[in-house]
């Protein structure tokens, strides 16, 4: 698996072709969710844009009216930063300056939040145990793949954060 390393001010990683495909798909799905698929009734949208005033729907709607556009644009830009820095021909090196590393961390977090909602992952969920259970039930299931992507994103996020903090 990919490990980010620090080279001067940059965080650098060598991604496999499979990692590039997964990251491209995940970032593209986040962009799609925030553009074509944006629906306030979707629990993923609710997780990515939580109500600041959950007990006051009018205040929450007013706050959302003034902030949602910028927040949505920021999230789209962060996912776009991932797409822009991925190798174009399969496997390859990724070099992230501090601003790009920050965008990657935020984009990975958004993708994990979205996937976590879809997979019904909670703070109490043991992802390793979930993967093992899903493999026992049906090793070729989409749930096994999605849980594996969720776990990979967590690993990648931690590796990048470690490199940023060096």
Automatic annotation (TrEMBL):
It comes from the Bacteria. InterPro entries: AosR. Pfam families: DUF2017. This is DUF2017 domain-containing protein. It comes from Allocatelliglobosispora scoriae. The lineage of its organism: Bacteria, Bacillati, Actinomycetota, Actinomycetes, Micromonosporales.
């Amino acid at each position: 698996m990919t490990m980010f390393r620090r080279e001067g001010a940059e965080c650098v990683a060598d991604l496999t072709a499979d990692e590039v495909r997964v990251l491209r798909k995940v970032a593209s799905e986040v962009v799609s969710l925030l553009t074509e698929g944006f629906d306030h009734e979707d629990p993923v949208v609710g997780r990515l844009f939580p109500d600041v005033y959950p007990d006051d729907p009018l205040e929450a709607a007013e706050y959302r009216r003034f902030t949602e556009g910028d927040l949505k644009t920021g999230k789209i830009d962060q996912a776009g930063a991932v797409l822009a820095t991925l190798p174009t021909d399969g496997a390859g090196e990724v070099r992230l300056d501090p601003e790009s590393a920050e965008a990657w961390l935020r984009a990975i977090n958004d993708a994990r939040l979205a996937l976590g909602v879809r997979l019904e992952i909670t703070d109490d969920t043991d992802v390793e145990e979930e993967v093992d259970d899903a493999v026992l039930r049906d090793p070729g299931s989409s749930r096994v793949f999605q849980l594996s992507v969720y776990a990979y994103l967590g690993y990648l996020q931690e590796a990048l954060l470690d490199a940023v903090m060096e």
